[in-house]
Hints:
Elements: E1 3-8, E2 26-27, E3 30-31, H1 34-42, E4 48-53, H2 58-67, E5 73-78, H3 83-91, E6 100-105, H4 113-123, E7 129-135, E8 140-143, E9 149-153, E10 159-161, E11 165-168, H5 169-177, H6 185-191, E12 196-200, H7 211-220
Parallel strand pairs: 1-4, 1-6, 4-5, 7-12
Antiparallel strand pairs: 2-3, 6-11, 7-10, 8-9
Helix pairs in contact: 5-6
Amino acid sequence: MSVWAILVAAGRGERLGLDQPKAFAKLGEDPLLAEPLRRLDASDWIDGIVLVAPPGWEEPSILLAEELACSKVHSCVPGGETRTESVRAGLAEVPAAALVVLVHDAARPLLPEEVIERVLASLSEGWDGVVPGLAVSDTLKRVGPDGAVQETVPRDSLYAVQTPQAFPSDVLRRAVADGAEATDCAALVEASGGRVKVVDGDERLLKVTTAADLAKIASWL
Length: 221
Ligand code: CTP
Ligand code: MG
């Protein structure tokens, strides 16, 4: 079974608010992108990597992969305006022979090997997609634009979903082909009728959105 990873790093990082894209924010000594790249490259489960870089940042991205001696990086392409467009750009570089595609957010740098193993193990049971998720622990309310609570939403069946997300490559190709948009790949597969499973996620897969997230992840390293 050949497994290819698409590492999406093309976002602007507006909520982080730096001069450079989020993928090049400093996490310790290195750009943020270094950590997930190194981990995917070192994974026993991954055969090849397509890196989706911020437009105009392809060269520093390739240089970084070379510096880290990441031997599995097959290509680096510029991303699009939205995450889905970036995934589409990455998928176009994944060879037809790849059976499984794993899509991961560079903004979740601390990728544990056991999560990769978990999503891939479940995928082999025949699902159209497998995603890591954490049960929601806060009470959830639907709130109107005026701040008024409209409803308390029962949380028992609600999960906050993370990446890496795994799909049979033909399923993901079909799901992204029709130009639909979503905040994760699983939603595209669900919309095209696919059955997606949630497995245990990991707290360490926190997504860097704000400066506080970046500081927290740096302290965990
Ligand atoms: N992403 C991407 N291409 C885009 C938008 C997002 O590749 N056009 C990637 C980001 O690089 C990130 C992941 O998708 O790894 C999750 O996106 P998010 O956390 O929203 O990152 P940004 O879009 O960069 O941040 P912001 O929304 O604050 O601008
Ligand atoms: Mg975004």
